[in-house]
Specification:
The complex is a heterodimer. By secondary structure, chain A is α+β, with helices and mostly antiparallel strands. Chain A folds into 3 domains: 64 residues, no CATH class; 86 residues, Immunoglobulin-like, CATH 2.60.40; 295 residues, 4-Layer Sandwich (Phosphatase 2c, domain 1). In chain A, a hairpin with a 5-residue loop joins strand 14 and strand 15. In chain A, helix 1 packs across helix 2, helix 6 packs across helix 8 and helix 7 runs antiparallel to helix 8. Chain B is α/β, with parallel strands linked by helices. Chain B has a single domain, classed as 3-Layer(aba) Sandwich (Rossmann fold), CATH 3.40.50.410. In chain B, helix 1 packs parallel to helix 6 and helix 3 runs parallel beside helix 4. Chain B is globular and about 45 Å long. The chains are: A alpha+beta, B alpha/beta.
Chain lengths: 503, 212
């Protein structure tokens, strides 16, 4: 202690140009030993320590004031609960914190738990005041203040506009449609709705659908089409495509042709019962009709001599449904030529399904190009079949359209057809990607029975909005409830939505 | 959900210090605030910032716009553009999801590069690496007369230039980037089509020259 005081006073006195030699050193030693002088020096040391502490605090505060501090962004109407991690922010020397400017946004700060919580009631880029005291500052000192930016995002739902589409446009169509009808022994409820992305800019619904039951032959047909968002007149493309499917079978599926198929299918069913034939999944490729010649779709190039019933059926499906697909292409091409624009402007996907009741059950046929699925579920929801595969590509966006001539000459063309015999079905479902993307997300889920059952449960009211499709009504109200159900919210999925349910 | 990844590669070399770097920071801030008001962008666009000076670093990983917060950037050092291109390539590999049977992939990324100088590193090997990645489009902006558009042309065909690297010009560039991200996010949500080149983007403002 004595040594320390001695060296300390020596430094102070040296500052005053007072120094000691060996001769007078004794004076300093006596001086340092004096009680009064000791207490004076202790006061000086204490004061000096305090000054040091004060300047350190000031330096630290200066540092904090210049530090970039931002608290996590909030969203309007969405519960916010954020514990501020001052240690992680490098602010472990902070002893007291307060915020100013949160209350009017319906948020509170609890300085015990260092948590901001509440449900923000406004949105925007705000400035809030962060008040704090650091270690070393006096308990009654005024709190330091730092202005922080605080972002409250708008609720995405509020950002969407609902602008009307131009009714004067030559290809205008209704934004929202829904309908219910009896379809043979079944019912169809179908709704098609303009997506939020289109409503936001006042553009048109690009989806479409059509259906018809032919009393004379007992066949029913349902078509769904999704006009490509990037194609200028795809709303017309999807409309024409759906209408052409109906028109084609109306003219081409004659009683004579239907009877031919009835005979085939009866024999086939007979064989199945005898256990002679494997289940036919896709159309047998060896029995390809050749649609490569655009001018003559009727030409069939049967590549194998051997003709089994199974391949006869394949051939029937291929030639009739394939010819329908080609007829749709021709119709769209003709329309585009007549109106002097590229067929690409009509780019649309197309799925359609035909079904008919026989005494042994239902026969369901299908065709699909693009990324819209057709699914069928048996009566007790224990089995299902995805009737078509989807055109999806790496990185997304790789779909195919009925307006692409290359699909007809591709090796894959023959795999675009579906065939199923089923005792009875609970639902036959056709949907556009506006539904599929949101509800099934990926193709793989379409292969899972539980996903289809989840989807049906969702339709039955198991959803955030508790909206239920009223299937039991079997009236336009069913379709109306379906249309309401289709307003479901799904981030990133705001495309047109079309869903046809045959039950 | 399919995200629309956006990578901003920003030159933070010493020559950017002062007005240009402040303009870049401000440009990003304004861009974020505007995009947050766009319902499609706020849901689909994810943004990452990679800076390059003597080294390249990803200062903000791919982040959704709602939680995005710009960090402070300073201008110092040289221009490691090649390293930045290698970095963005590996980030595209790790951050951008590909479509598989079990998941829906992200949209192809948009890449915006802004530089005011000539690369000081082995930029050719960076270009070679970057070229192996699929982007929806890549726009390189030469800010001021110090940048070499012929080098940028080897990275991408879509090169624009600003006569001056002043705050007004840089602000214009970011306005155009904002509009381009907006249009891209609308396009992918509205029927699933990606933008494939500069000609599908909004016309650039007069301050922005398209380098042919």
């Amino acid at each position: 202690m004595k040594k320390r005081l001695e060296s300390y006073i020596t430094k102070i006195l040296a500052n005053e140009n007072i120094s000691f030699s060996d001769k007078n050193k004794i004076v300093l030693e006596d001086f340092v030993a004096d009680e009064d002088n000791i207490s004076s020096m202790q006061i000086i040391i204490g004061q000096q320590e305090e000054l040091k502490t004060r300047i350190m605090s000031k330096l630290r505060i200066f540092e904090i004031q210049n530090q970039h501090i931002q608290i996590p962004n909030a969203t309007f109407g969405k519960e916010y609960n954020v514990k501020l991690d001052f240690v992680k922010l490098g602010l472990n020397d902070i002893v007291l914190t307060e915020f100013e400017g949160l209350e009017d946004k319906n948020l509170i700060y609890d300085n015990e738990t260092e948590t901001i919580s509440g449900v923000p009631n406004q949105s925007g880029d705000f400035k809030i005041k962060f008040k704090y005291r650091i270690k070393g500052e006096l308990d009654d000192s005024k709190l330091n203040e730092k202005i922080l930016s605080f972002i409250i995002n708008a609720n995405p739902k509020d950002l969407w506009k609902d602008l009307p589409s131009d009714q004067q446009d030559k290809y205008w169509k209704e934004n929202n449609v829904f309908t219910f009808e009896k379809l043979g022994y079944k019912n169809i409820a179908v709704a098609s709705k303009r997506g939020r992305s289109h409503a936001n800019v006042g553009s048109f619904r690009d989806d479409d659908f059509s259906f018809k039951h032919f009393d004379q032959t007992g066949w029913s047909v349902v078509a769904v089409s999704d006009g490509a968002g990037s194609a200028k007149y795809s709303r017309k493309g999807s409309e024409l495509a759906c209408a052409k499917v109906i028109n084609y079978f109306e003219n081409e599926l004659t009683s004579e042709l239907s009877t031919k198929f009835d005979t085939l299918i009866s024999s086939y069913h007979q064989e199945l019962n005898n256990g002679n034939t494997a289940v036919l999944n896709n159309v047998d490729k060896s029995e390809e009709a050749d649609f490569k010649d655009e001018n003559d779709v009727e030409v069939l190039e049967v590549k194998e001599e051997k003709v089994s019933i199974q391949s006869e059926i394949s051939k029937f499906i291929y030639s009739n449904l394939g010819a329908c697909a080609k007829a749709v292409y021709n119709c769209l091409e003709e329309f585009s030529i007549k109106n002097e624009f590229s067929i690409k402007d009509l780019h649309s996907t197309l799925i359609f399904s035909l079904f008919k009741k026989y005494d042994f059950g239902y026969v369901v046929l299908s065709f699909g190009v693009g990324d819209c699925p057709i699914g069928i579920l048996n009566k007790d929801f224990t089995e299902f079949k995805l009737m078509n595969w989807l055109d999806v590509g790496d990185f997304g966006g790789g779909t195919r359209f009925i307006t692409m001539p290359e699909i007809f000459v591709s090796d894959k063309f023959s795999t675009r057809f579906g065939f199923k015999i089923i005792d009875d079905f609970s639902y036959l479902i056709l949907m556009t990607d506006g539904i599929y993307d949101a509800k099934f997300v990926v193709e793989a889920n379409l292969e899972k029975l539980e996903k289809w059952n989840e989807f049906l449960a969702d339709l039955g009211g198991h959803n955030d909005d508790k909206i239920k499709v009223d299937f039991e009504k079997r009236s336009i109200e069913t379709a109306e409830s379906l249309s309401k159900w289709m307003d479901f919210w799904s981030p990133g999925n705001h495309d047109d939505r079309t869903l046809a349910l045959i039950y | 959900m399919r995200r629309l990844p956006v990578y901003l590669l920003l030159d933070t070399s010493g020559s950017m210090s002062g007005e240009p770097i402040e303009a870049v920071k401000n440009g990003v801030q304004v861009m974020i605030s505007l995009l947050r008001q766009n319902p499609q962008a706020i849901e689909t666009a994810f943004l990452s910032v990679i800076t390059f000076d003597s080294v390249a670093q990803q200062i903000i990983p791919l982040t959704d716009l709602a939680s995005f917060q710009m960090v402070d950037i300073r201008a110092t050092g040289t221009t490691a553009l090649g390293e930045a291109l290698k970095l963005v390539s590996t980030k595209i590999d790790t951050e951008v999801a590909k479509t598989t049977t079990e998941q829906k992939g992200d949209w192809k990324p948009l890449v915006f590069i802004m530089t005011d100088g000539i690369p000081t590193d082995d930029w050719q090997s960076g270009v070679a690496e970057f070229k192996k990645r699929k982007t929806s489009f890549t726009v390189a902006c030469a800010a001021g007369s110090g940048a070499d558009t012929s080098i940028l042309k080897q990275i991408t065909n879509d090169v624009v230039s600003l006569d001056n690297a002043d705050s007004a010009s840089i602000a214009k560039f970011f306005q155009w980037v904002t509009a381009s991200i907006g249009v891209s996010s609308t396009k992918v949500e509205d029927g699933g089509k990606e933008i494939s080149g500069i000609n599908e983007l909004p016309p650039p403002p007069a301050e922005l020259n398209i380098v042919v």
